[in-house]
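Protein record
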Amino acid sequence: SAAVSLPNWPGATLADQAGLSGTDLGVGLAIMRLASLGALPVTGLADRFGRRMLLLVTVGAGLALTALAAASPSYWGFVAIFACGRPLLSATNALAQVTAAEQTASRDRARAVALIAAGYGAGAGAIAIVHSLAAGTLGFRGVFVLALVPLALLPLPGRWIAEPDRFTVAIARGEPCTRACSVGTLCRSASSARLRLAISRSSVHAR
């Protein structure tokens, strides 16, 4: 039910703590993963308002919502809050790749995008390690609250992030973003693969 309580027992999984059935867990995971498709309209805004501003907004709001999810009193409240933050963090990944590509020369572009992708994978791996080491002490809520650490440090890298010259020149000339510089185009090209992955994963967990 919508009122499934969500305690914070150290060492227990979220499913065990909430007493969830496989169906409830699968539906919740499907909602959170499909919410990533919300990154499509969000990232498209970067073609109007700029990469830097939207990148800082999405990462800041995404981390804040991730930490806020730790305070949810119920499982479905947790799903709702986390589903709001997931598209923002997915948009952050896309915007970081676009910014890296636009800030580098053609010969270094693939390396820059690969570095961002590697950073995304390393971050996901670090979270898994932290969870395995600290969940027994902090519980799942404490692990999610750790999102406040990078949120507090965000102003530091924010000073070094500059608007790509390619975008600022195009705006100064009054030129609309072409397929070559459109963030929306990048996200649409990846949306079908992400949708298939989300559906396949959610179907596995629902069984």
Observations:
- The first helix runs from residue 14 to 18.
- Residues 188-193, 202-207 have pLDDT under 50 and may be disordered.
- The CA atoms of residues 11 and 136 lie 4 Å apart.
- The chain is about 75% helix and 0% strand.
